[in-house]
């Protein structure tokens, strides 16, 4: 028995949806491409919102609850937008032994932000990671994609302050809205 | 006028469970055989008619010659195997597992609509759990009473996923799934929205009937009034998936 | 393609390379890149432009001594790492000096990092034999050092059964942690009836403090591809997946690149080396879940599901991906295959100890002078690794314990540092080989705190499927917090031990079954640290 | 019978509804039999106001929710050879512990301000201070026998007392359970 399965229309004319669609097409719209597709949504939009999850679910013919279950199982997937800058503190064993906890405490005290959260002004997202593989540089953090190692808390805070003052990093593009 | 079905060759094996000689088809699991012979093996996630999940670990048994314990729900019988289902060690482990479950969420039996008809509560008594040695985890979840017929109380959920499996395997709706990870897992309908807003739920109520605790219940029931009826399950399972 | 053609191609490349007098190799693996090796490479390239023929600057993979990065090696083409002149902590501004000094018999003193020190000479490199020598993005470089010759030899000169025999006789055991005999695993998959089979490379290196697989993928990706293709030939699989952590973008990039190039050159695809054997490799990215290193969870993740383990049996070898027979090995295991086929199983079996053959790559980290990646024969004494190769504790302090096996392992106290490192000796000490993370701790480290750290890890990484792991790790963590804060009494320590036993015995998968190990091992050797904090 | 000295029993209710004590009284004529074998030396049910130095069996109903509860539980532990947690509140916190889902300030505000129309105010004098979290008895002091139930039946209490009188380990699970 094969029932007709219509492909849903793209949520909007934002060209980034085409990237998402391309990933699904490359995988023959198979249900096992779900994680790949969510990666591609996150690469394109920065996070996974309800519109995107529903679009992916419909395109791959995967139940909504399953898509949501997968999206929330993996720690790398974000359901909320990121801040303008991100700081990922490595909490792997080597970094832990060499004081990753102090870095997290410093961020908490100075920026009033818990790991996994974004500051109220949307400037900074603080995350922790289980080993970024830079154990030789412990304690390390990844600031806007760049690994900085052998960090004292003051050095990390200073580096983050520079980011915000320089305003060089482009803000992530605004999230595309579906046409009303 | 069906002809003789071409049965795949399935051997019958003999083995021993708690000093009782038994025989069964080699594609049967230990728990199936034990239930058939009324050898009590506790379980909260296993339910005849649903796929095995292997999550509650209460059905662990000892198999002579094997260093590790085996979950009876996911272990097939083997010729000559010798199984112990009720040793002092197993009883101790089961007590601890039940304690851990009680301590994980706010299972307050005295004010539960399933009081007196709850598998977790019954099991605690059977295992001799009269208190929890560990403190209760300090979390609470909202109750979703949005559905006009049913209610979900996550504080009473033990994450056995019977609801997820019955919805997927028997009803075919796959409204339920599990979100999150670890102790933060939660059963969800569709995109974790209120149950009433689910686009896929057929309101069939199977999830409520298979739920072992007071997590999924009918609206309008008071303390102790929620009695579950699961007789439909093996019947539907046979109709849906003929062997 | 014949083996001769490939050898000829390799010779041609080597001859072309040999026209260059000096080869300047800049480490472009993740750790050195983090220290700015990219800018060093640019500066050297910019400086070398006018000289063309006499000098070639190339980015290479990991040279091992990560704590001294960025590392730059000056060598003659084809030289090994140890034969090269190595510079440490190189800054872009050092480029002119390095280039000016090329012809000088004496190295630049202030940058020099002698390669005759034990860190380099005491190693035995098989998996890492080409790491730090070749450009991981260059197929030519790989071919020049013999890349894909083992694959072509296997396809054209050996039957699958003969390949199996070599792998079995090598005594190679899985390098992912469990130490299951690789030959046995392969034979099981090979014996399954024909039809679709899969080969999966587990590159979900999740142990905090372990970066061996990452270094191999970043330094010599073709070697892993070659190992997988040989495995596919031996077991009768035509499709492979590499499941790699998304946290390793550089490894993903280089692997993607390598797969594309291998395919274009005919080492992947259909009719490889003009035989009937075809093999495709697809990359699948993880998304941040430690439990996906467990093989059944990994397969669930490849299939687009929540990474939750399922009961075994059936084992993946019988029913794995989409119910088909599936061979799962880790990166380092596959990286050992080409040399085994090349040199023979007996050659490999001559290395190491009775029960543990070959070499093992370790990631040395923690409180130690030489942080980085090393490869030593199985059976090397721990003390030798830490004191001689690792250079001991900075400032001459005393080692208190060495943690191996990550969250599934345990701490080895100073008194046992004389133990040879092999699967069985480590098991006897209450820890495991694991994937090769080795964290050194000095007297300042609190063992209760180490146990608490790993328990927190297991708690947040528990998938939530089975009760003992989901709730047990959470309760054990709470107890460890109370003990660490000197709030717990004797009864709570007893409860902790009871929970360790229950979680170990009843958990569904390896993550849960081994989660109590860090507690049990620190209790075994450092019980006084727990007891001194009890209140009653 | 009278040759053996009577068992000295003390009881108290902490944060509970006194239902467990009512269940104790539900023993009907067995109370007479009991009175020949035990002496209630301290209890809300009798006049004695001083906890004797040496008590054989202490029975506590209710959970530990305020400073007075804790003090009394500690006194019972110090004076009683065998300490019995009677009923679900004592054994696992039961209904009183449901307030643990909320911060204490919210609980007080709800009870004494939001739901009060006439002169809403927090009581400060003459009442013991509430503790941040409600815990079962064994959350603070060591307990020897646990009798779950809400309330445990008179039969269950009888069986436990008889076992203690006869010097046996009671097996409450044979007669009662959580929520019974």
TrEMBL record, chain A:
Coiled coil: none annotated. Keywords: 2Fe-2S, Homeobox, Iron, Iron-sulfur, Metal-binding. One of its GO terms (molecular function) is DNA binding. Its cofactor is [2Fe-2S] cluster. The keyword Iron-sulfur applies. The keyword NADP does not apply. [2Fe-2S] cluster binds at residues 90, 95, 131, 135. Pfam families: 2Fe-2S_thioredx. Binds 1 [2Fe-2S] cluster. Gene3D superfamilies: Glutaredoxin, NADH-quinone oxidoreductase subunit E. Belongs to the complex I 24 kDa subunit family. This is NADH-quinone oxidoreductase subunit E. It comes from Marichromatium gracile.
UniProtKB/TrEMBL annotation, chain B:
GO terms for molecular function: 2 iron, 2 sulfur cluster binding; 4 iron, 4 sulfur cluster binding; DNA binding; metal ion binding; NADH dehydrogenase (ubiquinone) activity; oxidoreductase activity. SMART domains: NADH-G_4Fe-4S_3. Its cofactor is [2Fe-2S] cluster; [4Fe-4S] cluster. Gene3D superfamilies: 3.10.20.740, 3.30.70.20. GO terms for cellular component: membrane. The keyword Hydrolase does not apply. Pfam families: Fer2_4 (PF13510), Fer4_Nqo3 (PF22117), NADH-G_4Fe-4S_3 (PF10588). Transmembrane segments: none annotated. Keywords: 2Fe-2S, 4Fe-4S, Homeobox, Iron, Iron-sulfur, Membrane, Metal-binding, NAD, Translocase. It comes from the Bacteria. Residues 148-179, 192-221 form the 4Fe-4S ferredoxin-type domain. Its main location: membrane. GO terms for biological process: ATP synthesis coupled electron transport. SUPFAM superfamilies: 2Fe-2S ferredoxin-like (SSF54292), 4Fe-4S ferredoxins (SSF54862). It is found in: Membrane. Residues 89-128 form the 4Fe-4S His(Cys)3-ligated-type domain. Signal peptide: none annotated. The keyword 4Fe-4S applies. Residues 11-89 form the 2Fe-2S ferredoxin-type domain. Belongs to the complex I 75 kDa subunit family. PANTHER family: HYDROGENASE SUBUNIT, PHOTOSYSTEM I IRON-SULFUR CENTER-RELATED. Composed of 13 different subunits. Subunits NuoCD, E, F, and G constitute the peripheral sector of the complex. This is NADH-quinone oxidoreductase subunit G.
TrEMBL record, chain C:
Its cofactor is [4Fe-4S] cluster; FMN. It comes from the Bacteria. GO terms for molecular function: 4 iron, 4 sulfur cluster binding; FMN binding; metal ion binding; NADH dehydrogenase (ubiquinone) activity. The keyword Mitochondrion does not apply. The keyword Iron applies. Gene3D superfamilies: 3.10.20.600, 6.10.250.1450, Glutaredoxin (3.40.30.10), NADH-ubiquinone oxidoreductase 51kDa subunit (3.40.50.11540), NADH-ubiquinone oxidoreductase 51kDa subunit, iron-sulphur binding domain (1.20.1440.230). Keywords: 4Fe-4S, Iron, Iron-sulfur, Metal-binding. Pfam families: 2Fe-2S_thioredx (PF01257), Complex1_51K (PF01512), NADH_4Fe-4S (PF10589). Residues 448-493 form the NADH-ubiquinone oxidoreductase 51kDa subunit iron-sulphur binding domain. Coiled coil: none annotated. Belongs to the complex I 51 kDa subunit family. This is NADH-quinone oxidoreductase subunit F. It comes from Marichromatium gracile.
From TrEMBL, chain D:
One of its GO terms (molecular function) is oxidoreductase activity. It comes from the Bacteria. Residues 17-164 form the NADH:ubiquinone oxidoreductase-like 20kDa subunit domain. InterPro entries: Hydrogenase_assoc-protein, NADH_UbQ_OxRdtase-like_20kDa, NiFe_Hase_small_N_sf. This is NAD(P)-dependent nickel-iron dehydrogenase subunit HoxY. Keywords: 3Fe-4S, Homeobox, Iron, Iron-sulfur, Metal-binding, Oxidoreductase. Pfam families: Oxidored_q6. Its cofactor is [3Fe-4S] cluster. SUPFAM superfamilies: HydA/Nqo6-like.
